[in-house]
Structures are given as structure tokens and as C-alpha cells.
């Protein structure tokens, strides 16, 4: 091995602790709160929160093992294993990534063979550790699962369940070249490693590195909660929820009653905020056809907010919003089919009537990335006005892939102070459109680049299919086969109405 501590070794093996080393936080509580909220909702979330003082007491008197077991039981008992795996795949990686210690990661990534040890359930961390930290193996506790696929809330009791035994099984007759963890972990797995070191040593040596490697970023994630639910944050969420429901109802009701041009003036009195930059174009002359507003896609509310800023109802093309959202929408919506020929005809027909809004990413992305733009819009008109849309919320995300999309606007308005940022760019000059001989793909890529530069985002080639493949672990289709026949039928009806 060469210059291991400086993050330059390309050989050897390392065993690293996850909590307290690769992750700064050693407390599993916020991550189990996420599991509880995303798999079971507010009741289990609140139950685990109210148990927190007991958990802290157990930790303080040296009963950390019992504290962890009690946390696991309350968080996942009775939850389907597939649901736990779905949250571990689609929700937790974002929060894990925010907590990664980059100095520790640089040391860890410098070894060829990498193994992570954790006292948390393996199912909970394996997807993140392998996909984003590039570990080869994960040594963790196994959850007990019934034959019906539900977690009992207890860990499996098996022989040779200690980290040392599992590591010996992985490395056979060899020993790991390096062990990386907290000094308190020595009695568990560091004792079988050839060399041991801890984060302060790694941090000091890494000051001489020219650059730190980066884990694979989290581009797609799901879940409703914006911030990691520490005990204080979780308490604020629980206390806000009843009031938030009332606030959301009032905001939505007023938004449907008053004229849309009045909403920007009323929004500050309801706790919202609209930030507008650039000069919006005037309504297009009917004889020339409408202007096509090409927007980044952050939430379901993008076209509605754009109409509020413009002071007039501008129709929007949609791909997969719920029927209920269409009914409640204050602006006209045109549902597309993803059949290129049919969709092109519909968009042309609407542009002939007036202005139109399109989000060519085809789906939302929460992180500072723009997905690949569909080139269809560039083929249909030369009157293109790019609009950079972004938003900020405190408690709840306004989009979800796993839950009922009909609730997306409601969760957006449940936030104490939702903020939308709208930036109008200049209409594309004729020489930048297809009329000047540009290909539709060149025009789409150009619009994507200028919008990304405006927002400080990064362009990607990811598409809607990539997003749902990551979040669903397959092609993104919905599967009702696990339910009983009558329940499957109920779910199918609900999916039709709400998705």
C-alpha cells in the first residue's frame, strides 16, 4: 500500500465503522424517525419521539443495546420488509449523504476492498453504503422477518453474529489491512485489523492531500420530510402539524376564490413569499400564436406559480398529475400521453390559442440538478421564453414518487413559509431556434444550460425513467400483487383517482 493516510492507496483492505466515523452522527434516532414517518405516518413518528427521553436515559446508564432494540421495535414492528427496503433506497441516502464525513470518506475510498461495520440493521444502510460509498460488503444486524414479510421489530438471534465472526467469514484466513473507527469500537472489530487509526489522525494527514475524492451524489430521493428529524425538529413538526393542516386549507381555499392576479399581493399575509426576477413578457397576440414558457420542474406548483406572477391563467401541459389535482387546479391543464405525435398536435393546438407552460424535464428533481430536456418543445415554436423556477420550504417536500401525488399541493401549503423564486430570461433569439437551422436537441440542450447557469444547478442526462428506476428499484411500475384481491382492487381505484 502507498501513502494510505493521505488518501492515495489503491490497494489493500479496510474495515470502517459507519456511525461516528463515515457518518458524523453516532445517534441512529433521526434515521429511525424517518423510517417511522415514511412507513407508518405521524402516529408512529410521534410515538417514537415521546420515547426519546427513555432512550437517552438508557444510553446514559450504559444500556445502549437495549436503547437501540427499543428504537428498532417502535420504528418497524409490523412494517412490511419491502416498505423498509423502499425507504432505505429512496429516502435515507439523502440524509446519510448530508452527514458523511468527507475526510473519513477520503481515507475509506483510498483502499481497494472496503467493508462497513454498523450496529444498525443492515437492510437500513446497505443500499446507501454500496451505491454511494462503494463498499463491497456490509456487516450489520439482521431484522427478524415473519413468513408473511413483516418485521417483528427484533433482531435475529444467530450464532457467530458478532462483527468479528462476520469479518472473519468475509476475509477468510486473511486480516483487514486497516480498521477505521471510534476508540470505543476496539473491542468489537478493530482488534482483528492489522492497523488501526481514528478520524483525528486521518483528518490531520489529509491536510496534505491535494484533493478529496467525493462519494457518488444523491440526485434522486423521495420522502416528505425536508430536514433530518432530530428530537427538536421532530417536536416542531408534531406541534406544527395540526396548525399546518388548517393553514393549508385556508391558503388553498383563498387561492381558489380570489382572482389569480391578486395572489402575489395576498401571499405575504398568508405566510408565503414570491420572488420575481426579470421582466415577464406581455400576453402574446392571438394572430401570432402564444409564447411557450419553458420552465424548470421543481414541484407540481410551477405552472400555477408562473400564472400568479403573470397575473393571468396560462394553460400548462402535464404528464402524470392526479385527477384530483386537475380538478382543483386554478389554471387549465392539458394532459399529455407521452406519444410524441399526439403530444405535438396537442401542444400546437394550445399554442394557437395563446400562451402555454411546459416543463420539459418531465418530472421533478429536488436536488440542484436539471434532468435532460425533451426536445419536443423546440420543434413546435420559435417563441420560447425560458423561466428558472426554484422553491424553499421548511418542513415538507411538495413532491413525492411513493405517496399519493394528490397530496403534493397540500403538503406544500402546510409549510410555515413556502417561498417560490421565479426568474424570467429573455426570449430566445431567432438564431438560437430551429428556424435558424439548429436541431431540436441543440435548442433543448442550450435552454437547459442557461437555466442551470441561472440557478447554479448542474446539467445531467438523467430522465424520468432513470428517476423512477432509482426510487422504485425497477422500472417504476406500481405492483399490487402483494395485497389480497379485494384490497388490490381498492388500491387500484385509489391509484387511478389520486395518481
Automatic annotation (TrEMBL):
Belongs to the GPAT/DAPAT family. PANTHER family: ANCIENT UBIQUITOUS PROTEIN (PTHR15486), GLYCEROL-3-PHOSPHATE ACYLTRANSFERASE 7 (PTHR15486:SF54). One of its GO terms (biological process) is cutin biosynthetic process. GO terms for molecular function: glycerol-3-phosphate 2-O-acyltransferase activity; phosphatase activity. It is found in: Membrane. InterPro entries: HAD_RAM2/GPAT1-8, Plipid/glycerol_acylTrfase. It comes from the Eukaryota. Pfam families: Acyltransferase (PF01553), HAD_RAM2_N (PF23270). This is Phospholipid/glycerol acyltransferase domain-containing protein. The chain crosses the membrane at residues 31-55, 234-258. It is a multi-pass membrane protein. Keywords: Membrane, Transferase, Transmembrane, Transmembrane helix. Residues 291-392 form the Phospholipid/glycerol acyltransferase domain. GO terms for cellular component: membrane.
Amino acid at each position: 500500500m502507498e501513502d494510505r493516510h493521505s488518501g492515495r492507496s489503491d490497494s489493500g483492505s479496510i474495515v470502517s465503522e459507519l456511525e461516528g466515523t463515515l457518518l458524523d452522527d453516532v445517534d441512529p434516532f433521526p434515521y429511525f424517525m424517518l423510517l417511522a414517518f415514511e412507513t407508518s405516518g405521524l402516529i408512529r413518528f410521534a410515538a417514537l419521539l415521546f420515547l426519546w427521553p427513555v432512550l437517552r436515559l438508557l444510553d446514559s446508564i450504559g444500556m445502549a443495546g437495549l436503547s437501540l432494540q427499543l428504537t428498532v421495535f417502535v420504528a418497524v414492528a409490523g412494517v412490511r420488509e419491502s416498505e423498509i427496503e423502499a425507504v432505505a433506497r429512496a429516502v435515507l441516502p439523502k440524509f446519510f449523504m448530508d452527514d458523511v464525513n468527507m475526510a473519513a470518506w477520503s481515507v475509506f475510498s483510498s483502499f481497494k476492498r472496503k467493508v462497513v461495520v454498523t450496529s444498525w440493521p443492515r437492510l437500513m444502510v446497505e443500499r446507501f453504503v454500496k451505491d454511494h460509498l462503494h463498499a463491497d460488503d456490509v456487516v450489520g444486524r439482521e431484522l427478524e422477518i415473519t413468513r408473511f414479510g413483516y418485521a417483528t421489530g427484533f433482531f435475529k438471534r444467530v450464532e457467530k453474529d458478532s462483527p468479528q465472526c462476520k469479518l472473519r467469514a468475509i476475509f477468510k484466513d486473511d486480516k483487514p489491512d486497516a480498521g477505521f473507527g471510534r476508540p470505543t469500537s476496539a473491542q468489537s472489530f478493530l482488534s482483528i485489523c492489522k492497523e488501526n487509526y481514528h478520524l483525528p489522525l486521518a483528518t490531520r494527514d489529509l491536510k496534505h492531500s491535494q484533493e478529496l475524492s467525493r462519494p457518488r451524489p444523491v440526485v434522486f430521493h423521495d420522502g416528505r420530510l425536508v430536514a433530518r428529524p432530530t428530537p427538536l425538529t421532530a417536536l416542531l413538526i408534531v406541534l406544527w402539524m395540526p396548525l399546518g393542516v388548517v393553514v393549508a386549507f385556508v391558503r388553498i381555499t383563498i387561492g381558489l376564490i380570489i382572482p389569480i392576479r391578486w395572489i402575489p399581493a395576498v401571499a405575504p399575509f398568508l405566510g408565503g413569499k414570491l420572488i420575481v426576477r426579470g421582466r415577464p413578457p406581455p400576453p402574446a397576440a392571438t394572430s401570432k400564436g402564444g409564447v411557450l414558457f419553458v420552465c424548470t420542474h421543481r414541484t407540481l406548483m410551477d405552472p400555477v406559480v408562473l400564472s400568479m406572477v403573470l397575473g393571468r391563467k396560462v394553460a400548462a401541459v402535464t404528464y402524470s398529475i392526479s385527477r384530483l389535482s386537475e380538478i382543483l387546479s386554478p389554471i387549465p391543464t392539458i394532459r399529455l400521453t407521452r406519444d410524441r405525435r399526439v403530444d405535438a398536435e396537442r401542444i400546437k393546438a394550445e399554442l394557437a390559442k395563446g400562451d402555454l407552460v411546459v416543463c420539459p424535464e418531465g418530472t421533478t428533481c429536488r436536488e440542484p440538478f436539471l434532468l435532460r430536456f425533451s426536445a419536443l418543445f423546440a420543434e413546435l415554436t420559435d417563441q420560447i421564453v425560458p423561466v428558472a423556477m426554484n422553491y424553499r420550504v421548511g418542513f415538507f417536500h411538495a413532491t413525492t414518487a411513493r405517496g399519493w401525488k394528490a397530496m403534493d399541493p397540500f403538503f406544500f401549503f402546510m409549510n410555515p413559509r413556502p417561498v417560490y423564486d421565479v426568474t424570467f430570461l429573455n426570449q430566445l433569439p431567432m438564431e438560437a431556434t430551429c428556424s435558424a437551422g439548429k436541431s431540436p436537441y441543440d435548442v433543448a440542450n442550450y435552454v437547459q444550460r442557461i437555466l442551470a447557469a441561472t440557478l447554479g444547478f448542474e446539467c445531467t442526462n438523467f430522465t424520468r425513467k432513470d428517476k423512477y428506476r432509482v426510487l422504485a428499484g425497477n422500472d417504476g411500475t406500481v405492483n399490487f400483487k402483494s395485497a389480497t384481491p379485494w384490497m388490490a382492487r381498492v388500491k387500484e381505484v385509489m391509484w387511478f383517482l389520486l395518481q
